[in-house]
Amino acid sequence: MTTHTGPHPTRRLILQGAVSVALIGLGNLPFAPARAAANDKYPEEAFKQKSEADAIKALYGRTAEPSDKVKLDAPEIAENGAVVPISVTTTLDKVTSISFFVAENPNALAASYRVPDGTMPAVANRLKMAKTTNVVAIVEADGKLFSATKEVKVTVGGCGG
Amino acid sequence: MTSSIRVRATANRDITEVQALIQHPMDSGFVKDAKGELIPPHFIQELKFACNGKEVFVADWGPAVSKDPYVKFSFKGAKKGDDLKISWTDNKGGSDETTAKIV
């Protein structure tokens, strides 16, 4: 570590101040009772999990089985890990949610979508990937979890650091 | 101020396809700025779509969603001329909303 005596400490203080304010702001939000209704509140805890397995457990409370009825569309190679187009479609019935996990990102859960009655069980989005790893899509259908997995090679990581 | 939300909702018979593009930095909290300081996380957490008072799609996002996020989905039960309301909130309490006509 260097021992700067310049403007660094001040800036750090200001930044910390900003973070504290943000945290206080969050503190006012009513905290969701742990997974009481996985499908209607922002899944704060699931987004904090490091591993894919823990994130799935925190989000859904059970495990998924691979299914060929879940079609995960992602590139073989992503030149830019900051913007990886990924989409999912499924022929499963009674879909209530679709979630995307990037196994080796700092936090595995990337996005989770709630699919009400009348909405098609398909979603396209763009995710960041830190490095070459598996992308996992999970479809919740009729209370069960089904998954599809695909490895995406990343040339330039998209999470910085 | 112009809206951060750009949306196109197209009805084809009974299915409406929605594409939304939102301007947002989606900072992950893992990236350093030019001075080597971590940029604090700043990302959209919830994005909601409602049509005729009924929620038709909700996205829960973490910081791994790309900058200026894009999302596409389709739903039934709307027709041309109906209103689609889109709203988001981020982890710093920021928010925006807009209403689009389905064409």
Question: How is this structure best described in words?
Answer:
The complex is a heterodimer of chains A (161) and B (103). Chain A is built from 3 helices and 9 strands. Chain A is globular. Chain A is an alpha+beta fold and 161 residues long. The model of chain A is unreliable at 21-38 (pLDDT under 50). In chain B, a hairpin with a 2-residue loop joins β1 and β2 (15-22). With 103 residues, chain B is mainly β. Helices cover 0% and strands 52% of the residues of chain B. Classes of the chains: A alpha+beta (161), B mainly beta (103). The A-B interface holds A 11-12, 15, 18-19, 22, 25-26, 42-43, 47, 82-84, 87, 102, 105-107, 109-116, 118-120, 122-130, 158-161 and B 15, 26, 28, 30-32, 37, 40, 45-46, 54-67, 69-77, 91-93. β6 of chain A pairs antiparallel with β4 (54-61) of chain B, so a sheet runs across the interface.
Point out poorly predicted stretches of chain A: 21-38
Count of DSSP helices of chain B? 0
The tally of strands of chain B reads 7
Greatest contact pair?
Answer: A-B, 43 and 36 residues
The main sheet of chain A comes to:
6 strands, mixed
Tag the structure with descriptive keywords.
heterodimer; A: alpha+beta; 6-stranded mixed beta sheet; 3 helices; 9 strands; B: 103 residues; mainly beta; 4-stranded antiparallel beta sheet
What is the secondary structure topology, with strand pairs?
The complex is a heterodimer of chains A (161) and B (103).
Chain A: H1 8-27, H2 44-48, H3 52-60, E1 65-66, E2 70-73, E3 77-80, E4 84-90, E5 95-102, E6 109-114, E7 122-127, E8 133-141, E9 144-156
Chain B: E1 5-12, E2 15-22, E3 44-51, E4 54-61, E5 70-76, E6 83-90, E7 95-101
Task: Summarize this structure briefly.
The complex is a heterodimer of chains A (161) and B (103). With 161 residues, chain A is of the alpha+beta class.
